[in-house]
C-alpha cells in the first residue's frame, strides 16, 4: 500500500552537492546550512460538552433493584433487574425473546432473558450516540400470580458516549508524501462513507485531497463494511512544501445515522523536500578515504547507487552504504584529486520526496 513517490521537480537537472578536495590526515566535514520551517499547530475545535442534567430517577423504589443503576451504557452492556416478588412462572426461565419488564425512552434495542422468577438480564444490542435513556416499569406489568405490579415512582437513567473520532497522530515537522493516519471512533462507521467525509486539506489554500481507507480489523457487518478503527492515507502523494490537516466532516454513525456533531481537525504537519545537511571528505588513519553525505531524512539503501550519486572524476571500486540519514561512499580515491559529487533528481528519501531545485 505504501508507494513512495515524490513530487515532480520543476527541472530535470542533477543536484551538485559539492566539489571535495582531500587534505592530509583528516578533512573536517563542512556543513550545508539547512533551514527547517516549523509549522504552527492548528487549533483543535472545541467540542461542545453536554451539560449535566439533574436526574430524579429512583432505581431502587418499591424494592426493585437495577444494576447498573446509572452511568454510561453501550452495545453489549448487560442490565440486571431484580424484583421483590416472583414475576414469571418457572417455565419461562432461560426462555429467549421475552418482553422486558420495563420500557425505555428513547427505545433501547436489546434482548431480555429471565434468569430466575425474580431476576432478569437485558443485553443491550445497540445505542444512540450521546443519548439519555430513561427506563420505567412497563405499563400493565403483572407478577407471576397475575396481580398488577405497580411502582409509579421507579425509574432509572443511563447515558451513552458522544460520537467522537480521535487519533494519536502528532503534528510533524517533516510529513511523509503519503502519511497513514490511524483513526478511532466511539461508534462503528461505514468505510465507504469515511472515504467521502474524510480528506487531507492544505491549511493555507484549503485545497482538498481525497483519501483511501484501509480497514485494520475485520468487523462483522451485514451491509457495507463498518469499523471503529481504521487508517486513511492520501490517494496520491501530497505536494511538497505545504502544511496539511486531516478533516472529518459530517461522517455518520453507522447505527443511529447521526453525523459527527462537530468538524474534526487533526493537525498533521508540513511536507518538506529532501535536503543535504552536510557533505564531508574524510581520511582517517587506518580507515578508507570516505565521502559522507548527511540528509534530513532516512535513506533507503536501494536509493544509494552509482546511477543516482555520481562521483567525478570516475572512481574505481565505489561502494555506497546507507545508514539511516547518511550515505558513506568508499573507493579508490586519489587523495590529491578534487572530486565533484552530483545527485540525480530521481533520488528520494524515505518520506518520498527528492531534492528541491538546484541550490
Structure description:
The chain is an all-beta fold. It folds into three domains: 93 residues, no CATH class; 99 residues, Immunoglobulin-like; 106 residues, Immunoglobulin-like (Sandwich). Helix content is 2%, strand content 35%. The protein has one helix and 22 strands. Strands 10-11-14-13-12-15-16 form a seven-stranded antiparallel beta sheet. A five-stranded antiparallel beta sheet has the order 2-17-18-21-20, with no helix packed on it. The N terminus is likely disordered.
CATH class of the largest domain: Mainly Beta
Low-pLDDT segments, ≥5 res: 1-12, 23-52
What's the helix count? 1
Report the β-strand fraction as a percent range.
35-45%
Classify the helix fraction into a percent range: under 10%
Q: What labels would you give this structure?
A:
single chain; 359 residues; mainly beta; Immunoglobulin-like; 3 domains; seven-stranded antiparallel β-sheet; disordered N terminus
Topology record:
Elements: E1 15-21, E2 30-31, E3 65-67, E4 78-82, E5 102-105, E6 109-114, E7 119-126, E8 132-137, E9 155-159, E10 165-166, E11 181-190, H1 191-197, E12 198-202, E13 208-215, E14 226-234, E15 243-248, E16 264-270, E17 276-282, E18 290-295, E19 309-312, E20 319-323, E21 326-330, E22 338-343
Antiparallel strand pairs: 1-22, 2-17, 3-4, 4-7, 5-8, 6-7, 8-9, 10-11, 11-14, 12-13, 12-15, 13-14, 15-16, 17-18, 18-21, 19-22, 20-21
Short description:
This protein is mainly beta and 359 residues long.
Amino acid at each position: 500500500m505504501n508507494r513512495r513517490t515524490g513530487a515532480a521537480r520543476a527541472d530535470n537537472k542533477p543536484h551538485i552537492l559539492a566539489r571535495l578536495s582531500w587534505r592530509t590526515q583528516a578533512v573536517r566535514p563542512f556543513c550545508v546550512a539547512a533551514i527547517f520551517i516549523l509549522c504552527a499547530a492548528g487549533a483543535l475545535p472545541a467540542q461542545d460538552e453536554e451539560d449535566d442534567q439533574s436526574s430524579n430517577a429512583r432505581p431502587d423504589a418499591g424494592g426493585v433493584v437495577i444494576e447498573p443503576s446509572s452511568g454510561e451504557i453501550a452495545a453489549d452492556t448487560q442490565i440486571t433487574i431484580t424484583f421483590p416478588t416472583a414475576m414469571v412462572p418457572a417455565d419461562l426461565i432461560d426462555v429467549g425473546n421475552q418482553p422486558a419488564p420495563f420500557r425505555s425512552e428513547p427505545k433501547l434495542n436489546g434482548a431480555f432473558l429471565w434468569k430466575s422468577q425474580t431476576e432478569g438480564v437485558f443485553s443491550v444490542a445497540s445505542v444512540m450516540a450521546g443519548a439519555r435513556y430513561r427506563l420505567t416499569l412497563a405499563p400493565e406489568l403483572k407478577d407471576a400470580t397475575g396481580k398488577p405490579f405497580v411502582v409509579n415512582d421507579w425509574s432509572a437513567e443511563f447515558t451513552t458516549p458522544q460520537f467522537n473520532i480521535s487519533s494519536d497522530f502528532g503534528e510533524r515537522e517533516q510529513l511523509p508524501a503519503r502519511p497513514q493516519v490511524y483513526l478511532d471512533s466511539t461508534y462503528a462507521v461505514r468505510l465507504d462513507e469515511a472515504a467521502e467525509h474524510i480528506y487531507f486539506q492544505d491549511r493555507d489554500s484549503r485545497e482538498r485531497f481525497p483519501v483511501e481507507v484501509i480497514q485494520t480489523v475485520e468487523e462483522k457487518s451485514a451491509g457495507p463494511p463498518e469499523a471503529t478503527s481504521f487508517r486513511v492515507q492520501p490517494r496520491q502523494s501530497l505536494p511538497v512544501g505545504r502544511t496539511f490537516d486531516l478533516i472529518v466532516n459530517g461522517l455518520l454513525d453507522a447505527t443511529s445515522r447521526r453525523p459527527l456533531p462537530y468538524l474534526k481537525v487533526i493537525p498533521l504537519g508540513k511536507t518538506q523536500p529532501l535536503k543535504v545537511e552536510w557533505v564531508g571528505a574524510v581520511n582517517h588513519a587506518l580507515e578508507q578515504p570516505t565521502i559522507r553525505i548527511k540528509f534530513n531524512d532516512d535513506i533507503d539503501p536501494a536509493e544509494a547507487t552509482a546511477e543516482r550519486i555520481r562521483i567525478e572524476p570516475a572512481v574505481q571500486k565505489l561502494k555506497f552504504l546507507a545508514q539511516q540519514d547518511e550515505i558513506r561512499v568508499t573507493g579508490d580515491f586519489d587523495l590529491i584529486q578534487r572530486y565533484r559529487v552530483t545527485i540525480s533528481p530521481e533520488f528520494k528519501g524515505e518520506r518520498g520526496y527528492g531534492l528541491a531545485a538546484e541550490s
